[in-house]
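Anyone opening a protein record will find just a pair of labelled lines. A complete record is shown below as an example.
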Amino acid sequence: MQEILFGYKLNPTTWAYVSSLMILGIYFKFHRFWSVRNLDLVALLCFSPGLLLIYLGVDPELQKKDPVQAAQLIRAGYVWLFATGGVVLVRLLLDPVMVRRPLLEPNLNASGLTFTGAALLVFLMANIITSPKERLEYRLAIAAAAQPEDKTLADPGFPPFERFARFPNKVMVAAVSPEPAMRRTILLRAFETHAAAILAHLAIVAGMVWIGYRHFDNIHTGVAAATLYLLAFYTSQLTSQVNYAVPAMLLVWALAAYRLPVLSGLLAGFAAGLIYYPLFLLPLWGGFYWRRGAVRFFAGVVLALGSLVLVLALVRSSTADFWDQAGMMFGWRNPLHVEPTGLWHFYDNAFRIPVLAAFLAICGGLALWPAHKNLGTLLSCSAAVMLATQFWHANQGGLAMAWYLPLLVLTIFRPNLEDRIALSAVRPAWGRRRK
């Protein structure tokens, strides 16, 4: 970006203030000060201090000069993220009982929002390509490169995708002092991963706009939600993380295609196969499609997971390697045996047991409550489940905000969707239609 705009430089602290002021100016309803919309915006902005504390704590110079202070900043940042996430989780779980959903349009008209969103999209995509050092993901990559490679640190999920998604971090570290022999390989792999991240973010924005147009019956709302997603401080700090952006894209479009259970199941199944954690969405989605479309939805999920298992079988080097990778894909391991790198690095791993038990109780309960699920329930509760995974996620739990951030933003803007239930929105199966 500095080659195009000479002297262009925007550090995270400055952008946190600028983006917060823009969000308040565009979306805050000053004439309805105590509205739920305003409280949602304040809660969304409260994630920024936690990310800034982690950014300051993983500063390589500070870690060499005063490692104790760096550790304190990192721990404070994760605690802040967990506290804010807990408040937002309660709000998402209470969203199904919020029946009154007045239309609160942004303070900026549709043309201004479209221009703002397009400009933000261009700058964020340019950030992916240039990989400036003024980003949280760069410092996290430097910190991860200093640690020994350990298999226990790998996240559950599709192993080839995990290796592909980790490469942007290696690119950022290698860009400091690239070896001549690796230069061409680095450039080629960097192009692949950067292209995947850019396309994923484009698809997220397009999916949010489509949901606003098709399911909220208001394209202005979709554009407003997409622009808020791009304005969020988190989006600018972990932009090129493929393992965050691609699953978010799949979940957004799974919701966009909820009228087609097979396609929705395929997208949700691929998301679950790639990063494992969306598997816990299946009870909720099964409860939504229970009265119509459940068989087709789960058929799509099984087809997606089966295709990923087939890929593992084709690329396996041995039978033992196949079973090992399949186990990683479906999370067949004790999550407490993984060496944590986020908040749980500072606390006893045993405290994760009640957190994991509460998470499983929430996922099981959402299959039954609320009894009559609509699109609004599916949207908010899906965001709640993906947010709740952060509380027991061992590898930098709390930083995978992209898994739920688009869904959270759509929940903030959604209208009353009580009529969007599977029985009326999903067409009967072909055999029943013919009968």
Residues 12-430 form one domain. Residues 183-214 form the longest helix (32 residues). The chain has a mean pLDDT of 88.
